[in-house]
Amino acid sequence: MPDLWKSLAVNQTLAQDALKLETIQSLWSGYGEIFRLQLIPESLGSLIVKQVTPPTSEHHPRGWNTDRSQLRKLRSYEVESYWYTQWSQHCNDQCRVAKHIGSATENCHSVILLEDLDASGYFQRHSQLLPTQAKTCLNWLAHFHAQFMHSTANGLWPIGSYWHLDTRPDEYAAMKPGKIKTHAHKIDQLLNNCEYQTIVHGDAKVANFCFNKNSTKAAAVDFQYVGGGCGMKDVAYFFGSCFNEHECEQYVPALLDYYFDTLSDALTDRDINTLTLEEEWRKMFAPAWTDFHRFLLGWMPGHAKIHSYTESLALETLALVEGQNK
Q1: Which pLDDT value is given to residue 221?
Q2: pLDDT reported for residue 170
């Protein structure tokens, strides 16, 4: 849809024209691409285009090509567009996101035009992190969760995260019988019934953070599964994305302390009992980890993230939910 992104870029800026520079990545399952464009004259700089062009037939890497899967993906792009147009402006410098330039939809195709974070100084990417670098992302998450504490997720996913049980019945059905499957809905309810709810990013893996030169600041991208929920869902998923099982055992306790200290500081001016919040959310760390574990057991049971640390948290979670029945 070259006319759509080009006309949007010209209409939303002072540009006379816009040229596609490079493809950054293809969207999951062939749903389009993300690319960088150059505004003309070049002194106006560059922008990022997220172009959604649904395929006529899906070719999912894991074979999950059901109608339900397609509807979920299409909804995720609608949510992301709504996030950028209606919510993203409430993020501050401590939870930096790309500035929204404009959006457009034509038939089944849509375009989101965003600030180029690389050009704004967030040009570093990582696949694994040192503890000091992980703190940069946890600072972002703590301020993001604080900013939207007790917000109602209007226009977003009612329950954020791409692995949410209600949106993954195919993967749930594929799970082998076991205690995680038996108690999956109870684990989901634990998280959903928390007194302290916020807006979660929903896909807070390390690959969705852009870092400055020294990795002391971060900005986040990819808000397809942003919505309501317990902040531990983001934190647990983030740790699993950047640490192996031994690093989790070594680093997570101290980094969790850092997250909660930062969250408390970020909520200083809010009428929120941060001690009660921390007590509740610490209890939800293992269930949040196990909730994603449940998804992996159905989606890809041989995944590298299913390891001894994950299994220890699953046992802790099972003891919690089974104890409620006594």
Answers
A1: 98
A2: 94
Contact 111, 51 (CB under 8 A): yes
Question: Which among 153, 173, 150, 151 has a CA at the least distance from the CA of 161?
Answer: 153
What CA–CA distance (Å, rounded) separates 264 from 171?
36
* Ordered domains of the chain (ranges, CATH): 2-115 (3.30.200.20), 131-323 (3.90.1200.10)
The pairing of strands 96-97 and 218-220 is parallel
Looking at 107-214, which runs of residues are DSSP E strands? 109-115, 198-200, 209-211
Amino acid (1-letter code) at residue 294: R
Q: Are the C-beta atoms of 161 and 227 separated by less than 8 Å?
A: yes
Is 50:288 a contact under the CB 8 Å cutoff? no
Q: Which sign, positive or negative, has the C-alpha torsion 212, 218, 223, 225?
A: positive
Phi, psi for 37 (deg, rounded to 5):
-120, 155
**Angstrom distance (rounded) from CA 20 to CA 48:** 10
Q: What are phi and psi of 93, to 5 degrees?
A: -65, -20
User: Rounded CA gap, 218 and 208, in Å?
Assistant: 10
Structure tokens at 202: 């929903």
| C-beta separation of 88 from 231 below 8 A | no
Confidence (pLDDT) at 65: 57
Residue type, position 299, single letter = W
Supply 260's token pair: 């909660």
| H-helix or E-strand spanning residue 7 | helix 2-12
The pLDDT value recorded for residue 60 is: 46
* Contact by Cβ (8 Å): 228, 157: yes
- The rounded distance, in Å, linking the Cα atoms of 270 and 137 is 22
Q: What pLDDT is recorded for position 301?
A: 95
